[in-house]
């Protein structure tokens, strides 16, 4: 048996590789990444960073099914049949303990789960994020409209009393009847606006719509690896593109005293990164809210260009325009590329013909799946 009754009973198959022994999973994941990235030589791969097999997820995305009298948190098929996954072994105990009071609160607030086929109901998702060091939770409720917000505000004290670990509660409005998890509008119900996540003793302030890695332990090693590479290359000026809440830039500032600029299109994420930098007294780090492509194009005529760039793009990769900028910029000598999609990473590296891989490493952020995070150190 593999430790998950949902899988054994055929109720959930999200962890497609769960029947495979974890040591074998790591071997196969390393081999798959090597096959997708032939430009990385066999001697350039560092040992894969493994995950804890269970209890490693700091985030939960739960589809809401059932009825408001008996809500289910987990998955719902296209016929509207719900399967509750509250006891999923991927979640730490502190997160799992929050599911029951959240369900009770859904009932108390009469929040009808959204019905996909009938396109009726209000509550679509419950999204949780857990901070192990803070022992705190951020809970986001994705709803179809603002119809239930007054009831949710009125009942908020009840939820916080039933589950004291909850520090941040917000409501996301997603009116589109499609498989889109969240919409642009977020309404925070609590006085506290962000949840503090900690990696390698650095505070990272996570607002409701900010991106954060799913696996704390593996993410911490990802950033430590980047630090080790930066210690080797000793950059004079560094850009962190797609910086999110500032993870790479803030870690870089711990080992490099040179100017660092972090760029992220989300103004919320930039505000979080600026808060962390201010708390840590990092005067050499600045953050700006705009797209990486816009920033790179705007800085082409600048006198002081970076010699080192870190990129951590979404699954689509950095794309042709940014690849061309990096390829044609004589000042950029070192590139650290962190990718959650080896296929788009390979496509981008094929356009960076002036750069050569020095080292690469696979990080198993998502155990029991085919997903892999790969980070590559390149030099011109």
TrEMBL record:
S-adenosyl-L-methionine binds at residues 213, 242, 264, 312. GO terms for biological process: rRNA base methylation. It holds the Pfam family tRNA_U5-meth_tr. It comes from the Bacteria. Keywords: 4Fe-4S, Iron, Iron-sulfur, Metal-binding, Methyltransferase, rRNA processing, S-adenosyl-L-methionine, Transferase. GO terms for molecular function: 4 iron, 4 sulfur cluster binding; metal ion binding; rRNA (uridine-C5-)-methyltransferase activity. InterPro entries: 23SrRNA_MeTrfase_RlmC (IPR011825), MeTrfase_TrmA_AS (IPR030390), SAM-dependent_MTases_sf (IPR029063), U5_MeTrfase_fam (IPR010280). The active site is at 340 (nucleophile), 340. Belongs to the class I-like SAM-binding methyltransferase superfamily. RNA M5U methyltransferase family. This is 23S rRNA (uracil(747)-C(5))-methyltransferase RlmC. It comes from Thiosulfatimonas sediminis.
């Amino acid at each position: 048996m593999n430790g998950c009754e949902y899988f054994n009973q055929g109720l959930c198959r999200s962890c497609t590789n769960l029947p495979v022994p974890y040591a074998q999973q790591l071997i196969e994941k390393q081999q798959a990444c090597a096959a997708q990235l032939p430009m990385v030589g066999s001697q350039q791969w560092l040992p894969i960073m493994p995950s804890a097999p269970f209890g490693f997820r700091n985030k939960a995305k739960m589809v809401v099914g059932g009825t408001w009298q008996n809500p289910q948190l987990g998955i719902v098929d296209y016929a509207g049949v719900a399967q509750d996954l509250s006891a999923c072994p991927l979640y730490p105990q502190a997160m799992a303990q929050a599911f029951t009071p959240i369900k009770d609160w859904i009932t108390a607030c009469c929040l009808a789960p959204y019905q996909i086929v009938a396109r009726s109901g209000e509550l679509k998702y419950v999204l949780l994020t857990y901070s192990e060091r803070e022992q705190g939770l951020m809970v986001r409720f994705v709803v179809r409209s603002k119809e239930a917000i007054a009831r949710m505000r009125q009942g908020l004290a009840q939820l916080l009393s039933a589950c004291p670990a909850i520090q941040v509660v917000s409501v996301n409005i997603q009116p589109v009847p499609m498989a889109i998890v969240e919409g642009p509008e977020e309404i925070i119900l609590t006085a506290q606006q962000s949840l503090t996540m900690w990696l390698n003793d650095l505070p990272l302030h996570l607002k409701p719509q900010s991106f954060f890695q799913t696996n704390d332990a593996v993410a911490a090693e990802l950033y430590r690896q980047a630090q080790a590479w930066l210690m080797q290359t000793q950059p004079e000026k560094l850009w962190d593109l797609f910086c999110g809440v500032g993870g790479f830039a803030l870690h870089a500032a711990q080992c490099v005293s040179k100017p660092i600029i972090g760029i992220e299109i989300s103004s919320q994420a930039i505000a979080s990164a600026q808060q962390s930098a201010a708390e840590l007294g990092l005067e050499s780090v600045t953050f700006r809210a705009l797209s990486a492509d816009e920033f790179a194009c705007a800085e082409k005529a600048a006198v002081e260009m970076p010699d080192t760039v870190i990129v951590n793009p979404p699954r689509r990769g950095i794309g042709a325009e940014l690849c061309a900028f990096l390829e044609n910029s004589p000042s950029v000598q070192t590139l650290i590329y962190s990718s959650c999609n080896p296929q788009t990473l390979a496509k981008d590296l094929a356009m960076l013909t002036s750069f050569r891989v020095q080292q690469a490493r696979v990080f198993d952020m998502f155990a029991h799946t085919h997903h892999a995070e790969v980070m590559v150190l390149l030099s011109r």
